[in-house]
């Protein structure tokens, strides 16, 4: 009986392995975003990620990091950014890896196209370089950063 069970198990395992095709296995949204971030980091020469910075903001001031996730316009101008609403627009970026959201502030002139696309869309995915400006940092602030060089696309259904 043991040989029969083993034989059935072996047969089913082979069928399952043969039936699995690489094309059928799709990356999760987190894996897709990770690939995009790695490519962005290589292209822009930025080594840190948001996760490297967010738990120790005070010691990571003015250091570039890459962040990516779901983006939506918002109107939060807290702490040191309160005086810059006329120069920057705010984007709430929810990281897909579950590590929370950041408020990113993009230049209204330089990143006007991104702003226009955000207004026109139902959702966007963005990857950008960001940094926490030391000159306006407040120790009690949360995840607020200036951002540059956005790369974005329409929100994909599964992302």
What is the structural class? alpha/beta
Specify Rg, calculated over alpha carbons.
Answer: 21 Å
Question: How far apart are the termini?
Answer: 48 Å
Characterize the overall form.
globular
Count, helices: 4
**SSE pattern, N- to C-terminal:** HHEHEEEHEE
The largest β sheet comes out as: 5 strands, mixed, barrel
What percent strand? 25-35%
Number of strands: 6
Strand order of the largest sheet: 2-3-4-6-5
Residue ranges: pLDDT <50 for 5 or more in a row?
1-23
* Overall average pLDDT: 84
Write a brief caption for the model.
By secondary structure, this protein is of the alpha/beta class. The chain has helices at residues 2-19, 29-44, 50-53, 112-120; strands at residues 48-49, 65-74, 88-94, 101-107, 124-131, 144-154. The model is unreliable at 1-23 (pLDDT under 50).
């Amino acid at each position: 009986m043991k040989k029969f069970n083993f034989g059935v198990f072996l047969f089913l395992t082979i069928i399952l392995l043969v039936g699995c095709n690489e094309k059928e296995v799709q990356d999760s949204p987190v894996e897709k975003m990770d690939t995009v971030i790695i490519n962005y980091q290589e292209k822009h020469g930025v080594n840190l990620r948001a996760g490297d910075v967010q738990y120790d903001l005070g010691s990571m001031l003015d250091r570039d990091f890459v962040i990516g996730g779901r983006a939506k316009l918002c109107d939060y101008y807290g702490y040191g950014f309160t005086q810059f609403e006329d120069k920057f627009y705010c984007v709430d970026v929810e990281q897909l890896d579950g590590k929370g959201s950041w408020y990113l502030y993009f230049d209204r002139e330089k990143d006007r196209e991104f702003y226009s696309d955000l207004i026109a869309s139902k959702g966007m995915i963005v990857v950008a370089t960001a940094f926490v400006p030391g000159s306006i940092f407040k120790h009690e602030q949360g995840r607020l950063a200036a951002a540059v060089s956005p790369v974005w696309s329409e929100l994909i259904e599964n992302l």
